[in-house]
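Example record

One chain of 297 residues, shown exactly as stored in the release files.
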Amino acid sequence: MAQSPVSEQPSMGSYNKLSKFMGSWPEVAIFRRFGALNAQNILFLQAELVRLEDQLQSIREEDEQSTDLEKKQSHQSWRSLVLAHEQGNCADSQWQKVLEIREKLKEYNAALLEYRELCKLQRPNQRNLEALREWLARPRCGDYFLRGIEADVWDPEEREHASDLVAMSETHVDRDVFSKFLAFYVVPLYHRYLGSRVKKPDDPESGIYEYKESTLMTVTHFIGITLGTLIPTASIFVLYYVNDMVARLLAILAFSALFSIALAVFTKAKKVEIFAATAAFASVQVVFVGSTNGSVA
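Predicted structure tokens for this chain:
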């Protein structure tokens, strides 16, 4: 994000205003993952554990050769392990090293699980990211209040940071292909040529227009249900009036392909579910052809 020229006038923006903006519009709650730093932290914890593991193994080998009965039996008895710790040099005991490893393992396992959850977060939608950048630049909103390296987080010129951004809102992740097409292509075109003229901003200060998710889902469901009714019905009509067997088989192929494409585009069905539904639909068409073969003059 290009920084504003140095000015004596204080900026109208602040972290307080930015946090309120993100709280009101979760779609623009976009932050850095700090993937490299998190990975480095795990690597350092791993290195510490490797060293502790090696130290524990050395202590075990020394205890096995020890003349102290408690130390010698420490690998067979937890009681002996603790007694050897209490009676000897606590700092160098096997039990003390086990306790150190236990604490480090907690930290390491927590870091691993946290990083796994971080990696599941989706990258932000480009339009939401642009909306955040525009808000930060608007005089009545962010007014370029970020300075120095803090402004680099959402800077479009910082490509390394751009690949490290994650979105808190996952509304676009749960959409089917057609819903994404409506949201990312159709709605922006509609807004550019008509929506911005007939609709008022939902947030006048930031100039944000909101198009309800429920409306997009209603449109998608309506079109999907309509196609789900028309495709099977159209295939029956075509197969009934086509007499040539080769033409009928080609029609079955075409309608089955269209049916599977519609499932892939208008639903979130898995591949195996699409395959099963398409196979069932093709079977129904084949049965219909067999039952009507020769019945049409």
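Notes: The chain has a mean pLDDT of 82.
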